[in-house]
Amino acid sequence: MSIFIFSQEKIDPSKPTNLYTQVNAQAELNSYKGYSTYGTRFNFQYALNKDNLLLAEVPFLYNNETKKFGLSDTRVRYFNVQRMNNKTLIALAPFADIYIPTGKSAHGLGGGTWSLSAGLIAGLVFSKNFSMFPGASYVYLTEPKKSGLQVQSNISLKFSESTFAFVNPSVMFIHSDAIWQAEVDVNQIIIPNKFKVNAGWLPNFTDKVNTFRIGVTFFL
Q1: How far apart are alpha carbons 102 and 73 in whole angstroms?
Q2: Residue 212's beta-bridge partner residues?
Q3: What is the pTM of this model?
């Protein structure tokens, strides 16, 4: 996600409030207690302009316990950026995020619930190589009809013009439960404005689930 491209302007995908049209393909492994799912996740992001983006994500997974392969839960997201005339606070970004239960939960391929959330992310730049994108969102799960608050603090670390990483600890409060998660995503730009690769680890500390992803991104 990065600023809309005009002609040969150099893109900077190290900041989530920059919006780019892109296609992502990832190999994924999810390690649960006693079983795993693995497969491919496709993600398409379309920048309507420099301030608005639509995302669609479609995963295809295999469950080694149920021996079933198919579509998992899909995702649709809308992201808007309100840019600020401030050196540190560069943007406020409201968003809406929907997970659709297209994966069969009986086959271990989906969660069996709609997840509806809306929230706000702030873009804070402290230096050329260090920025933070904290956010909060209201989350509603249709099954078992519970709602709560999710808080995150996405940190962007830029090591060079072509190498950067995101570190994003988060917690979701659903009634009396707290679900602690994180994401670490390392990115390497191979061809500026065109192509990058990434490797990610997404642990769910509460449920003891680990997700590993290796992917490629094509900027269009």
Answers
A1: 5
A2: 29, 201
A3: 0.91
